[in-house]
Every structure is written in C-alpha cells, then in structure tokens.
Amino acid sequence: MSANSPIADELMLGTAMWGWTVDKARAFQLLDAWYAAGQRKVDTATNYPIDRNPAHFRLAERFLAEWIIANGVSDLRVNIKVGSLNNLHTPDHLLTRSFLLMMLDEYSYLFGDNLHTYMVHWDNRDDEKQIEETFQAFEEVAARGIQPGLSGIRHPGIYASLNSSFKFDFDIQLKHNVIQSDVPRYAAHFSGRCFYAYGINAGGLKLREAYDEKSSIKARGADPGKFAGKLQRIREVIAQANQNKNRPPLNAMHQVGLIHATYHPQMKGVLVGPSKPAQLESTLDFFRSLRQCDYRDVFEELVNLNKN
Ligand SMILES: NC(=O)c1ccc[n+]([C@@H]2O[C@H](COP(=O)([O-])OP(=O)(O)OC[C@H]3O[C@@H](n4cnc5c(N)ncnc54)[C@H](OP(=O)(O)O)[C@@H]3O)[C@@H](O)[C@H]2O)c1
Hints:
Elements: E1 10-14, H1 24-36, E2 41-45, H2 59-71, E3 77-82, H3 97-111, E4 115-123, H4 128-143, E5 147-153, H5 156-166, E6 171-175, H6 183-187, E7 195-198, H7 216-219, H8 228-241, H9 253-262, E8 267-272, H10 277-292, H11 296-307
Parallel strand pairs: 1-2, 1-8, 2-3, 3-4, 4-5, 5-6, 6-7, 7-8
The site of NADP nicotinamide-adenine-dinucleotide phosphate has 27 residues, from strand 5 and helix 10.
C-alpha cells in the first residue's frame, strides 16, 4: 500500500465457506472474476471449511490449488494459515518448528510461486519458549522470501515481546466489524498499518435481505436476530449519511463493513468473503467508490455506535 494512502487499499478474497456454502464451481467463478478484476490476493487455511465434516478437511485449499493449475497462474498472492490439525473447530494445533517447516514445504509445492504469506493460525499458548520455536520457523519462512503473519493469537503480547529481537514485519489478521473488534487487543502490542480485517459483515449479517438455510451466518450457527438492535442503529446512520447526494448511497452491510475497516488507521487491508459473483462485484464496486468519495463522516458515526 502507498505510505500516503488515507485508507487501507488492499483486498483479499476469503475462502472460509468454500466446500461449505460455496461449491467448487462457484469458487472457480469467484476466482475467475477476482483475477479478471486485477485482484491477486487470496486467503485460505488448512482447516477451511471449518464445517466439522472431517471429509472436508483441506477442501478449500484444494479448490484453490486446482484453479491455479487449471489456469496456469503464477502471480496470485496466496495467504495460507497453518497449524490446525482438523476442521472440527477444536483448538488442536501444532506450531513446532519442524511441523511448520514441513507445512511450508507442502504449501510451497502446492501453490508454487503463488505462495506469498505464511501465517500461524490460532495460538492459545502462553509459553514463551514454545512460541520462540515458532519464531525459529518464521526465520526460514522469511529467508525464502515469504511474508510471515499471525492470526487468532491469544497472547499477542508474547509475540510482540519476542519480536523485539526477531523484528519480523508481521501481517496480522483480526476480526473487525461494527459489532465486534479485536483491534484493541492487538493494538496494545503492535503499531503501524499491519492489520487485515476479517468478518466485516459479521459473518453474513444483512441489513435488508432475508436469510435462508444456505446463508453464511446460519451455516455458522449464529442467530441474526440477536443483532436486531445494532442493525437498526446502523440503518439510522445510513439514512443520515444518504442525505449527502454527492456520493453513492449506502444500502448494504458490506458497504458499512468496508467503511468501518478501511478507514481504521492501522488497517492495511480487508478480507472479503463474497459467496456469489454478484456479491464479489458489489464489493469491488464499493471499494472503488471508497477511493473516489469521502465517507469519513460515516466511519466516525460507526465508531461512535460502539462507544454508546
Ligand atoms: N483469521 C481468521 O481466523 C479468520 C476468521 C474468519 C475469516 N477469515 C478470512 O476472512 C474471510 C472473510 O471472513 P468472513 O467470511 O467472516 O466475512 P464476512 O464478510 O463477515 O461474511 C461473509 C458473508 O457475508 C455475506 N456477504 C459478503 N459480501 C457480500 C455482499 N457484497 N453482499 C451481500 N452479502 C455479502 C455472504 O453471506 P451469504 O453467503 O449468506 O450471502 C458471505 O458469505 C474468510 O473467508 C477467511 O478467508 C479469517
């Protein structure tokens, strides 16, 4: 991203629902459209989809690898998150140096030149010595020209403290939406623009559209009804913002999520999880609008929603 950019200017295509609510044909359509739009960053993880079906373990990365081979592509920028040992949503993970290096070889083979970032995915450990072993693996990751990263870290303070001697330039994924944000937990330890926001639609919340059984939020087992009060307040912010006729009007949750994430001063990029090509196009359309129009007033109102 450019140093002077006032807002985060990177997007990354998420794959968490591939093999779950998004089948292989649809995943291929999403990748076709993403690539055709000039976008190159794609995020995946060993345990996607986390649908608790063991037969689906590593299915999302398989779709991605198949698309890469089918299209002969070598300029994607794939972010792989590693460490999980199953897709059952359990905290079982392995982050020893030897396992991380084995998986590094595995993903270097699977994604070739497309492999860009290698992230630890979920770490509940509080033992500094064990975490230091993970840093030793990161030394090899960085030596191979691959970007090291973090995601789902329970004790970011330990990582930050060890990093005062290792000095990795970590990319860090964290949940950040109008309902819930992990930014404060990480910002206490990491400064600068190093964060990538995920869950900007709070896992598939809608401002207007109805849900069905294939809806992402339902598949994930959340109850959208719990957020009715917050959604009503978001609608009020939007109604107020839409009185400004000099920019495209707001009417959807992904627009709210993109404003809320991109304007955050520590956000480097945003993970988006469209499940259909039309959603992908509307996401890219609004991302373009963000570069042409000023929505900072809306960002400030959304931040205020969480203060009151
Ligand atoms: N680091 C981590 O631990 C972590 C955790 C979670 C996610 N991630 C990454 O971040 C990516 C995105 O996360 P997420 O899936 O939680 O994101 P999200 O944006 O909160 O939810 C995605 C859902 O929002 C709806 N949606 C997205 N774009 C839309 C649009 N333009 N219009 C209407 N609805 C839209 C879709 O729901 P419907 O299908 O119901 O329409 C979609 O499945 C994941 O795929 C994954 O790669 C990382």
